[in-house]
Amino acid sequence: MKKTFFLLLLLCIFSSSHAQEKDWRLGIQMWTFHISNFHDALYRVDSTGLTTIEVYPGQKLGGGLLGVFGPTMDATQRKTVRDWLTKHQIKVHAFGVVVCDKPEEWDAYFAFAKEMSIPIITAEPAKAHLDIVNELAGKYGIKVAIHDHPKPSLYWHPDSVLAAASGRPNIGACADIGHWVRNGLDPVDCLKKLEGKVYGLHVKDVAEFGNPKADDVVFGNGKSNIAGVLKELKRQRFKGFFSIEHEANWITNVHDVIADAQYFQQQLKQLK
Q1: What total of structural domains would you count in the chain?
Q2: Cα(179)–Cα(9) distance, rounded to whole angstroms?
Q3: Could you list the residue range(s) of the whole structural domain that residue 129 is in?
Q4: Rounded to 5 degrees, what are φ and ψ at 203?
């Protein structure tokens, strides 16, 4: 009943938005619920009313299954996880953030994503791996969205993401706007630099600009300028995914995520 209520609420808000924004997919990066195993975290997703997720490698499976989410899952585990997703009516819109030590490790992640019907891998490839990553993305029909962690991450600045994507048509950006703010970068300016290459976003609001340790806050209470971000993405005719990543109040953050989603939809409704 609770999930039905929130689904109806989100549907009503979406129905009044412009056609272009109906292609925008708002979900949850499962790191938000990483204190739970994957099986139990799906119930937390249910409580938010959202129906899409970005999974991450390494989350314990739970639900009677040993092991963690990722390419090491055997056939039985993969089928069981797909059954769980069907039961909860949840779709996976991305998988990451993937990091590989050796170039030969990437193929297993692409093959896994293909089998699990995941269209995008978010990743932070070493520079030496970029060509093989782009090649595998083309082979498997899966886009790669480079994620930005804070300094001294290789991709903390959008210029480094642009350089990585240059000449590699299967590579774009997963814009983590909260980390940009922590790095002292304006997220709207960063998105302008990446125009045409943004495949998805990790959406978080953070309390302070230029503080690498700034806390996550409920959307609308921080410095991420989510309203400005959405306006810029509308201008770019963006079509992609949004993953709420709320890295605070780990035990009780379901209510924060609900508030985040409601704020996001309110801002979406106000786009002109």
Answers
A1: 1
A2: 30
A3: 23-269
A4: -100, 120
